[in-house]
Amino acid sequence: MFFELPLRGLRSLLRNRVVAWPAIMYETFGPQGIERISRKLKEYQIRAEELEVEYLEAYPFVLENLKKRSIFSAC
After folding, report:
1. 55 burial class (0-12, 13-18, 19+ CB within 10 angstroms)?
2. How far apart are CA 41 and CA 1, in angstroms?
3. Domain count of the chain?
4. N or C: which terminus of the chain has fewer CB atoms within 10 Å of its end residue's CB?
5. Residue 72: is its pLDDT beyond 80?
6. Burial 3-39 (b: 16+ CB within 10 A, else e)
7. Which range marks the domain in which residue 9 is found?
8. pLDDT digits 0-9 by tens, 18-43
9. Domain presence at residue 29
10. How far apart are CA 64 and CA 12, in angstroms?
């Protein structure tokens, strides 16, 4: 899974008392993706309760940029 290195990095930061937390964009991952990431956080001994769910601010220029990059197909 492509999240292994970021999760290992986050775990290392937290173990060294650096203030950090995971965040995920709802529109990109959806409910199933958020649940999957929450399980992965627990595997890496990171408190899943600290997962910050962010929501897309659907400004026209943001949507256009995402369309151009084929990142967000619902635009």
Report:
1. exposed
2. 13
3. 1
4. N
5. no
6. eeeebeebeeebeeeeeeebebeeeeeeeeebeebbe
7. 4-68
8. 999 999 989 888 999 999 999 999 99
9. yes
10. 36
